[in-house]
Amino acid sequence: MHLSRGSYVQACSTTPQEDEHRSFPVWLQTMPATPSEGTVHQALIRCKSPRANIPQCDEKQPSCTACIRRGDKCEVITPGFDFRDGVVLGAKPRSVRLNKPKTTHSKDLPAHGTTTNDEPCHYGPDDFLIEPNHADNAPTPAPHPIHDERLSCSPPTPQSLTRTFLSPLPSQTIRRSLGRSENEYFYLTHWEKSCVQSLPSSQTQITAMAKEHAPLMHALLALSACNMSRSSPEGTKGETETSSSQIVYRPKRDYLLPSQHYYGSAIKQIARTIDKGTTSSTSHILAAMVLLCYFESSMGNFASFACHAQGVDTFINTHLSTISSEPIGRELTAACVLAKYHTWWLRMNFSSFSFQLSQGSLSLSPDISNMLRSINARRVIVTSILCESYRLNNIALLQLAPCGTQTSGVTVEECIAYLRIESMRLDEWHAGVSQSELPIESFSGLMDHGVGGIRPLTFRSHYFAMNYAYYVASRIMQCTALLHELSCARGPSNGPEKKEVNFWMTLLIRIVSGLNKQDCLKGNVYSIGVSSLLTACLLRCQNITIGRWVEKWLHEWGISSIFEEGSFPVFQALQTIRLINEEKAAGNEIYAIALPEDDGGGTGKYTSYNSQHFDKIITIGRRGISGRLYSELVPINMES
Predict the structure, then answer these.
(1) Alpha carbons 76 and 144: distance in angstroms, whole number
(2) Residue 286 has what pLDDT?
(3) 411/394 Cα distance (integer angstroms)
(4) How would DSSP label each residue in 62-84?
(5) What's the CA dihedral at 368, 373, 377, 379 to 10 degrees?
(6) What is the DSSP letter of 637?
């Protein structure tokens, strides 16, 4: 079955209806986002009729109502783009007069906004936000920054927040082949310099693919502008009386607006292409849809991500033979699966206990599993083991703890048995690790847990380091000592099984201490980040010294004004770990945290770095003296 134009736009809308939610996997069911933030507006399309001087076409097929009434032949046209030789050309640039002095930039800058015989106008960085291509089918021009009192009082950005985005533009060869505007050069440059390294290896081919395909190009530009917005925080004064003296940092609005325009254009063009039913651009459409999944995941918009993920699943199933036969198709499928696991991980953090208990198996279909094995998708495989181990461990623990009357469809004994299966899968994964993927130095010298004595483990690349961090975190989730203690009603112990957790946790913080923070910021945008990984693992390790080390490490990020990593708010991770450490210092153990009521993952992070806003969480733990399990509602400050 083919996705029709209407059904895809409806599936990709940010306001899905209640009945549509029931068809989603449980782990993708979320509350819908507000329509004002992400609603996609249809652009006007007209007929070729010479009498269609005013917009009257209602796009009905095979002939619109206006043409039927006039007796004209209805031929739909899409203004502003000329599809020749697979290269999408924009409308002729209009002359732009700027009432500002010229500034000196590289002579290599394109003469955007000039006539053929004019000298090029050299713009400053803010001028890249002007899109003079006014073709009806192109994204709406990004306006100048809005002069709002709430946005015009930005203080000087701290030195630590400085980001170097204005790197050299693409080469003249690339620019001539793309035929793009300055605005697009700007975001393409950021894509090549910053975004590509945070995406799976298959995404490196997307730049070349995008020059032949308008929907893919607009999806790429939308993701690039979104990434630039989120990695360029701007400070404003608080909007309430109590916070008016505080500086609130938000994603840069000047880049967020163009990303929304490109996003809407990409969805509109994808829907048209799918409606034609052609298979010549299957990989291009799949690539664009995957990029839109990344877009929604990074924005914390779980409802919209669920819509896109459903669209991708339907598209892959419809064109399975074509996609599975092409290397790029298999790579893109792996990228989509990775995005799903990342989004599931983000959604699990700060959800309700009932939501956590309702999570079903994360195993993949045989067709998808075969595709992953054929390309040796090691990152996807280890991430799937990590997420499934976390799910099983958490469900087993919650069934043993006093978190209400909710039950799961799987028993504690079954969870432990399934964890053994995941352990065997992890053994198989580790057996395939090459020498180049292992740490440069040996694992020897695992010291006592003195914070000052942590010896970093270094790897040949950030990618290999994160893969091994996922492996170690999976081992932590597969330790069942705590589950046996709780099921047998035994008190806390320091037996061999408990020491195993400390061993793996120490190894994890050695890996983390060897990571470069800038590599984490750029390389973990679309994968599980260190901050959320440490938060989850620390709930399984009761060593207070390790907890203090993690708290100190995250606190240094806060000092550097780093607001999110792995699309997860760093401040919320830090506050959670502080709360865990306070309980441990009081002699208690904390095993699980949740919201009193599930909020569907929040309302998205369009204008902030937090998608959720709450001031209380429920903790489950065990009293150190009595060994009694308890559940407690505690206040927590989650506003940075």
Answers:
(1) 33
(2) 93
(3) 12
(4) SS-HHHHHHT----EE-TT-EEE
(5) 90
(6) -
pLDDT at 134 over 50: no
Residue 249's H or E segment, with its range, is: strand 247-250
Residues making up the chain, counted from first to last? 640
Among candidates 562, 499, 509, 561, which has minimal Cα distance to 535? 509
Separation of CA 318 from chain center: 25
What is the reported pLDDT for 120? 30
- Residue 416 sits at φ, ψ, to 5 deg, of -65, -40
**Sign of the dihedral through C-alpha 341, 570, 222, 139:** positive
Question: What angle do helix axes 412-431 and 378-400 make, rounded to 10 degrees?
Answer: 160
Q: For residue 29, which of 16, 38, 40 has the smallest C-alpha distance? A: 16
Identify which of 406, 358, 346, 389 has the alpha carbon closest to the alpha carbon of residue 631: 406
Q: Which helix (H) or strand (E) holds 236?
A: strand 234-237
Residue 244's CB is within 10 A of a number of other CB atoms, namely 9
Mean pLDDT of 20-36: 38
246 has a pLDDT exceeding 80: no
Strand pairing partners for 248? 236
Instruction: Give the lowest-confidence range in 159-173, 275-289, 513-527.
Output: 159-173
Task: At 385, list the tokens.
Answer: 């083991």
Cα separation values, 201 from 255, 377, 608, Å: 26, 10, 29
Q: What is the amino acid identity at position 292?
A: L
CB-based contacts of 299: which residues, under 8 Å, 6+ apart? Answer: 226, 604, 605, 606, 611
Please state, rounded to an integer, the average pLDDT across all residues of the chain. 74
451-464 mean pLDDT:
83
**Helix (H), strand (E) at residue 88:** strand 87-89
DSSP state of 589: E
What is the CB neighbour count within 10 angstroms for residue 56?
Answer: 16
Q: Which residues contact 254 (CB under 8 A, 6 or more apart)?
A: 126, 129, 142, 145, 229
Contact between 288 and 213 (Cβ < 8 Å): yes
Structure tokens at 577: 């770990």
Cα 178 vs. chain centroid, distance in angstroms?
A: 27
Most confident of 4-18, 44-58, 309-323, 621-635: 309-323
Cα 192 from Cα 201, distance rounded (Å): 13
Assign 3-class secondary structure to 519-542: HHHHHCCCCCCHHHHHHHHHCCCC
* H or E stretch covering 499: helix 496-513
* Mean pLDDT along residues 632-639: 83
Of 623, 483, 470, nearest in space to 540 by CA: 483
Q: Are the beta carbons of 406 and 367 closer than 8 angstroms? A: no
Check residue 21 and give its pLDDT.
33
- pLDDT greater than 80 at residue 152: no
